[in-house]
Design goal:
Elements (H helix, E strand, L loop, with lengths): L2 E6 L2 H13 L2 E3 L8 E3 L3 E6 L4 H7 L4 E5 H6 L4 E6 L5 E8 L4 H4 L4 E5 L2 H11 L3 E5 L14 E6 L3 H5 L2 E10 L1 E6 L6 H21 L1 E9 L3 H6 L8 E4 L5 E9 L3 H11 L2 E7 L5
GO molecular function, one term: glycosyltransferase activity
Keywords: Amino-acid biosynthesis, ATP-binding, Cytoplasm, Glycosyltransferase, Histidine biosynthesis, Magnesium, Metal-binding, Nucleotide-binding, Transferase
Organism: Kangiella japonica
Length: 282
């Protein structure tokens, strides 16, 4: 029986499509087509809103899917979280009007607006602040100051919060996109094998995105100095150059390190440096 995968509609769709493509699977359709095809495997795909995915996977309507940690927590979805993909990182934050003082506000019963009922109730209860919670259905930031004293909402840059003259007083939770599975399906050997293979390849893609392959040449006199600079995944690969007294070196390096590392390598005696993207690192 085919695996059933659920993918979020909207801005996350493109990131999931790109990840699957790099794994070697072709998603044919778009975010307006609720049942795109996935070529290269035995997986049926359906699109749903992000908010619906954790609960549907927990119920077994779908075997695997992609969902934000915020909605997994909010729905108390009993799923296996297999991998943090790091897509769309956001913070759930509590905010009040920018000219209010939080220490004064928390002394009285406050009205709080949020799409996240469970997360907000848990947070406010822990704070020990008397509150009345209003369930918002989008545009939460427009509630204060007339209709709410506080909002609890997600943000990636804080620009919408600042634009509505609000300020952040606390971070409630941090969230990003997770690859999740129904717990019962993980006890099905055939489906678990499919999921484990997909998981392995996705990890390889995500690891590959963080690294580049550096290749360079150096002389016998400089090889020790050059190799000492290379923070490779294990040890750099070193081989003798044909008909020469020099060496060729290869190393998989974290992408973020190359800006400072390449000038150091040149100073240490490395020449003919090539930087190549890595599609997968396993």
């Amino acid at each position: 029986m085919a695996l059933k995968m659920v993918i979020p509609k909207g801005k996350l769709y493109d990131k999931v499509e790109e990840l699957l493509s790099e794994v070697g699977l072709t998603l044919v359709g778009n975010s307006r087509n609720y049942r795109p095809s996935l070529y290269g495997c035995d997986i049926e795909v359906k699109l749903l809103k992000s908010q619906n995915i954790p609960e549907m996977v927990a119920l077994g309507q779908h075997d695997i899917g992609f969902a934000g940690m915020d909605w997994i927590i909010e729905q108390e979805a009993d799923v296996d979280v297999l991998l943090d993909l790091g897509f769309n990182p956001v913070k759930l934050v509590s905010c009040i009007p920018e000219d209010w003082e939080w220490e004064e506000v928390r002394q009285r019963k406050i009205i709080v607006a949020s799409e996240y009922k469970k997360i907000s109730e848990d947070y406010l209860t822990k704070l020990g602040v008397p509150f009345k919670l209003l369930r918002a259905y989008g545009a939460t930031e427009v509630f204060p100051p007339e209709d709410a004293d506080m909002i609890i909402d997600n943000t990636s840059t804080g620009s919408t919060i600042r634009a509505n003259r609000l300020k952040i007083v606390d971070t409630v939770i941090e969230s990003s996109t997770q690859f999740i599975a129904n717990k019962k399906v993980m006890s099905d050997p055939a489906k678990k094998k499919q999921i484990d293979d997909l998981l392995l390849l996705m990890r390889g893609v995500l690891n590959g995105r963080k690294r580049v392959l550096l290749e360079m040449n150096c002389s016998k006199d400089t090889i020790e100095s050059v190799v000492k600079l290379l923070p490779a995944m294990r040890s750099p690969t070193v081989s003798e150059l044909y008909n020469s007294d020099g060496f060729a070196i290869k190393a998989a390096i974290e992408r973020k390190l190359t800006k400072d590392l390449i000038p150091q390598l040149i100073s240490a005696g490395a020449t003919d440096i090539l930087e190549t993207p890595i599609r997968k690192a396993l």
